[in-house]
Amino acid sequence: MKVGQGHYRSIWVEDGAVRIIDQTRLPHEFVVVTLGTLEEAATAIRDMWVRGAPLIGATAAYGVAIAMREDASDAGLARAHEVLVKTRPTAVNLRWALEEMARFLMPLAPSARADAAMSRAAGIADEDVAINAAIGTHGLGIIREIAERKGGVVNILTHCNAGWLATVDWGTATAPIYKAHLAGIAVHVWVDETRPRNQGAHLTAWEMASHGISHKLIVDNAGGHLMQHGEVDMVIVGTDRTTAQGDVCNKIGTYLKALAARDNGVPFYVALPSPTIDWRVRDGVREIPIEERSGDEVSFVQGKLADGTVGRLRISPEATPAANPAFDVTPARLVTGLITERGVAPATADGLAAMFPDREGQ
């Protein structure tokens, strides 16, 4: 996608080296980082230089490939899995990518694993791009229908960043928005700030501005008010893990948006790449592990200071502790539909099974 006059993926290989964009530096600085070791790949995932379930999975795959350059033995492959699987507990793509890399590499001789691992990681990245482009096409149909019925601008509310920065390219929730914009459909995006890490304010807003898409930044608690006054035509969010029953685990605050949408008759869609479906989980609220991150993310904010430097400021009393659950679960009953690469599925066990009969029970 666009960055200035250029086009980037969020992770790529250049001169044999794996490159990423350090998303913790956005929107004020655009910094490219090289991942040269397994530990650097793990740090990039754990410390959220990369984030978003699909990109976490792709980065984990490249992390295994980097590890195979260091030690391609069975022990080296096991260690790569052990180091990377601990970095983020909620996004299922991480585990999926690691299991896929192990499945692909284990039958190979160690001497063949380094090149094969890099090739398979690149394949996972390319597959993610194709999946998200297809999600965009299916979501475009929904936006087009609203535009034709309404006869004006389609107002879309997002939460967190489910853009190209959260995937390898296109994004999940933003893919339909990008495709609508390219098709000449007038869209306006309400961008939730997404406390505490402000991925909406830092990343989604930066993406929208880079692509010339009409948008406004709002505080997290403004969404319900906008829905009450008819200023939201649809909600599109992403997901880090979705159960076989259609429950959706996404950035903290998503559940509240779904409740407000249901109360106001606003369609609530989830852009769902199939690798985020965890067929082994039925009840999202009870079974999905919710990552508890450092309270410092709540107590401090990062931004550009008056002198132009980027700094970090405490916003709470020093004696006040903070809790920081990073995700919540939206029950399937609140989801209008799941926009997948194969089409729009009902958020039910039968709906997902019908859309992915080849994968149910995996």
TrEMBL record:
Active site annotation, chain numbering: 240 (proton donor)
Function: Catalyzes the interconversion of methylthioribose-1-phosphate (MTR-1-P) into methylthioribulose-1-phosphate (MTRu-1-P). Also catalyzes the interconversion of 5-deoxyribose 1-phosphate and 5-deoxyribulose 1-phosphate. Part of a bifunctional DHAP-shunt salvage pathway for SAM by-products.
Originating organism: Paragemmobacter aquarius
Pfam families named among the record's database cross-references: IF-2B
Stated family: Belongs to the EIF-2B alpha/beta/delta subunits family. MtnA subfamily.
Protein name according to UniProt: Methylthioribose-1-phosphate isomerase
Record bears the keyword Transmembrane: no
E.C. number: 5.3.1.23
Reaction(s) the record says it catalyses: 5-(methylsulfanyl)-alpha-D-ribose 1-phosphate = 5-(methylsulfanyl)-D-ribulose 1-phosphate; 5-deoxy-alpha-D-ribose 1-phosphate = 5-deoxy-D-ribulose 1-phosphate
Binding-site residues, substrate: 51-53, 88, 199, 250-251
